[in-house]
Amino acid sequence: MDIKEKRNYLDEWENSYSKGDNNILYPQLEVIRFLNRFIKKRNNDCPLFYKKEGNQIINGLDFACGVGTHCLTFNDFDIEGYGVDISKTAINIAKRRAKKIGLDDNRFKVLDADSQKLPFKDNFFDFVVAESCLDSMPFSTAQSYMHELKRITNGLIYASFIGYNDSINSDEFVVSTKLEKGTIQSVYDEEKIYKLFGVEAQEFKYFNKTVQLDAKSNSIIDCRYYCVVSNPENL
Question: How many structural domains comprise the chain?
Answer without folding.
Answer: 1
